[in-house]
Amino acid sequence: MTTSHDVIDEINLKIINILNKDSSLPFVEIAKQIGISDATVHIRVRRLIAAGIIKKFTIALDNNKLGYDHLAFMGINIEPGTADEVTNSLSSIEEVLEIHEMHGRFDLLLKIRAKNLEEMRDIVVNKIRKLPRIIETELMTALKTRKEDHMVPVMDSAI
User: Fold this and answer.
1) What number of other Cβ atoms are within 10 A of residue 107's Cβ?
2) CB distance 72 to 141 below 8 Å
3) What's this model's pTM, rounded to 2 decimal places?
4) CATH 3.30.70.920 at 70-141, yes or no
5) Out of 1.10.10.10, 3.40.50.300, 3.40.50.1000, 1.10.3720.10, which CATH number does the structure's domain 4-59 have?
6) How does 111-121 read in b/e, with b if 16+ C-beta sit within 10 Å?
7) pLDDT along the chain (159 residues), means of 10
């Protein structure tokens, strides 16, 4: 069985960094940038997928231009021992983009996007707060987003 440590080397890190910037880039172009064959890139990407390092190829969207310009974070406190149940329920709400289990002021931290304040209210009041096992919620609205990346660039030091 291949583990993630078996497939992380300098070439794979370069492939990951290139794909992180533009996952639609053809393997031939990636190969040129690194100085290897496109067949080698193809094999290495297949191994990265098999090892679970690359989970999927996707696109990055400008949510504001799509009309989802209301961003908020929600802290939630839940009944002890119900994290799996609550996170499963929250995962089915499409507007909930991220769910993080925390240790501190809140048990869970959510990232939510909506088209307007009315939709945000509907998500909070009718979709989230009505779920069982939720004790307390606090909504924190983002006024402006300065940076929103989805991956930390991997460096050679990660080997």
Assistant:
1) 22
2) yes
3) 0.72
4) yes
5) 1.10.10.10
6) bbbbeeeebbe
7) 66 90 91 94 94 86 78 97 97 97 97 96 97 97 87 61
